[in-house]
Design brief:
Layout (H helix, E strand, L loop, with lengths): L7 E4 L9 H15 L9 H5 L3 H7 L4 H15 L12 H10 L3 E6 L3 H10 L7 E4 L6 H11 L7 E5 L2 H10 L2 E5 L6 H6 L4 E3 L11
Parallel strand pairs: 1-2, 1-4, 2-3, 4-5, 5-6
Helix pairs in contact: 1-4, 7-8
Length: 211
C-alpha cells in the first residue's frame, strides 16, 4: 500500500492524542504505593520508556490481574484530572486538516470512552468519527480488529497511529499498517527496533499519509 492511499487513521489515545505521560507516571507511583506492587527501587521510568511494556511488567513480576486493577484505578483517577490534560503542539491543526481532506479519523484505546470524550471536548477536538474503547489492555490487537470490523474499514487503507511498542505489535497482529509517533510513552529507539511501517517525529508528518 502506498502511504498516500490511506483513507482511515485510527489513533491510540494516551501518549498519542493526549499528553498524559507526566500524569501517568505520578499516578503510577501513587497507586503502586497503595497496592504495594513494586518496591521503589524496582521502579525505573527510563527503563519503562525504553522497553516493551509487557516485557517490563513480566520482568518485575506483576501479575496480570493486578495490572488490570491498576488500569481500572488509573482510569478512575484520570476522570478527575482530565481537565488538566492537553494535546500535543501542532496536532489539533493537523487532525482538522486531515478531516477536511475526507480522512476518517478514529480512536481505539484501552482507556475509557468517558475520559476520551471529555478530553476531546476540552481540547476542541470533537472531530473523530468514532471512539472504540475496551479495558482489555493485553489484547490491543483485538481492540483494533473490533474497531475495524465495527466501522467497516478497509484494512489495506487503514493505519494505526500509536506511541508504544505494544501498538506496533497489535497493529501488525491485526493486519494493518502502523505509524509510531515519537512524542509519547516509548522512545524512538525502541519503537524503531520493532519495525513500524512509519516513524512520525512531528504531527505535520501525518499529512504525508494522504493525498
Amino acid at each position: 500500500m502506498d502511504i498516500k492511499e490511506s483513507k482511515n487513521l485510527i489513533f491510540d489515545f494516551d501518549g498519542t492524542v493526549a499528553d498524559t505521560l507526566a500524569f501517568t507516571i505520578n499516578s503510577a507511583l501513587e497507586i503502586n504505593r497503595k497496592l504495594k506492587l513494586l518496591n521503589d527501587e524496582k521502579i525505573d521510568i527510563e527503563k519503562f520508556r525504553s522497553t516493551d511494556s509487557m516485557k517490563f511488567f513480566k520482568e518485575v513480576q506483576i501479575p496480570k490481574i493486578k495490572l488490570l486493577y491498576f488500569a481500572y484505578r488509573y482510569q478512575r483517577k484520570l476522570i478527575n484530572h482530565i481537565d488538566e490534560s492537553e494535546t500535543f503542539e501542532g496536532l489539533p491543526e493537523v487532525l482538522k486538516e486531515l478531516k477536511s481532506r475526507g480522512i476518517k479519523l478514529g480512536i481505539a484505546t484501552s482507556n475509557s470512552k468517558k475520559n476520551v470524550r471529555k478530553f476531546l471536548k476540552n481540547n476542541d477536538l470533537e472531530i473523530f468519527d468514532f471512539i472504540y474503547s475496551s479495558i482489555d489492555y493485553f489484547r490491543k490487537d483485538e481492540i483494533i480488529l473490533k474497531a475495524v470490523r465495527k466501522y467497516k474499514l478497509d484494512r489495506e487503507s487503514t493505519i494505526y497511529v500509536g506511541d508504544e511498542v505494544r501498538d506496533v505489535k497489535a497493529a501488525k497482529d491485526a493486519g494493518i499498517k502502523v505509524a509510531s509517533v515519537t512524542w509519547g510513552y516509548n522512545f524512538e529507539s525502541i519503537l524503531s527496533s520493532y519495525n513500524p511501517d512509519y516513524i512520525v517525529n512531528q504531527p505535520k508528518d501525518l499529512l504525508n499519509f494522504v493525498k
